[in-house]
Amino acid sequence: MMYRLKRGNVVYEMSKTNKPALYINPGDEILIETEDCFSHKIVHESQRLDKDFDFSKVNPATGPIFVRNALPGKTISIEIKRIELDTQGVIELYPGFGVLGDSVNKSMTKVVKMENNQAVFDTMRLDLKPMIGVIGVAPFIGSIPCGVPGAHGGNLDTLEITVGSTVKLPVFTEGALLAIGDVHALMGQGEVCGTGVETRALVEIKVVLEDLQISEPIVETDDAIYFLSSDKALDTAIKNAVRYTVDYISEKKRITFEDAYMLASISCDLQISQVVNPLKTVKMRLPKSIL
Hints:
Blueprint lengths: L1 E4 L4 E2 L1 E3 L6 E3 L4 E6 L26 E7 L7 E11 L2 E6 L14 E8 L2 E4 L2 E4 L3 E6 L6 E3 L3 E2 L2 E3 L10 E5 L5 E9 L16 E10 L7 E3 L3 E8 L2 H20 L3 H11 L1 E6 L5 E8 L4
InterPro entries: FmdA_AmdA
Pfam family, one: FmdA_AmdA
GO molecular function: hydrolase activity, acting on carbon-nitrogen (but not peptide) bonds, in linear amides
């Protein structure tokens, strides 16, 4: 079954108290209209973030989607089949925002047009690389703003969450309550200024249910598996991502922890997804060829 979910159905936090906007069965497909991270309040360069901007209305995620038979202890797998971008996006600077935020004295907006599969940045043309910034489920307890990443997913800002990949998320509450938003037309690893090319989009996904227990999100592509971890301390996120990878290698290849650890050290790549959200997100790339 194919459904369509309009961008008017958004949440600003992931929570089991959110009322589902759509009920689906495992195996169903959904066309999801996503809003940009600023709720489409910044569309001209004369508009920008300031002290009067409602920061409670950032990173809206379309949903939530209730997946029947999704229960705590299982995993939902989201296959990303298509991302269609709007015709323009924005990049934003704001004092204190991003890695060098202490060097930004005033807010600034740059409008980026998208045409011929390229982003137009001043006189430069850069190839588009659409990806989903926010993809998550309701946490076990409480509410988590959509701008925050974690074990539930959320604002992972991971480049590999794109067309052709599958995102695996642990289920913490009945129905999972999946929500998606914050699409970027283009973003570099780290998202160092705090934004990519923020834009509206149409995302097509297929949701599958798995009898699999995972601790944090996993992203699978044609040639690799990425183990993600988010934490306030970068060192902790790194340690978790490496541990997930080593444990997976040990189990799949039926080798000792020691051998799996050494194999990971010589064949896997530790990478940064983003360092600008309340929690930092890292990933460990495991090439499928070694399995």
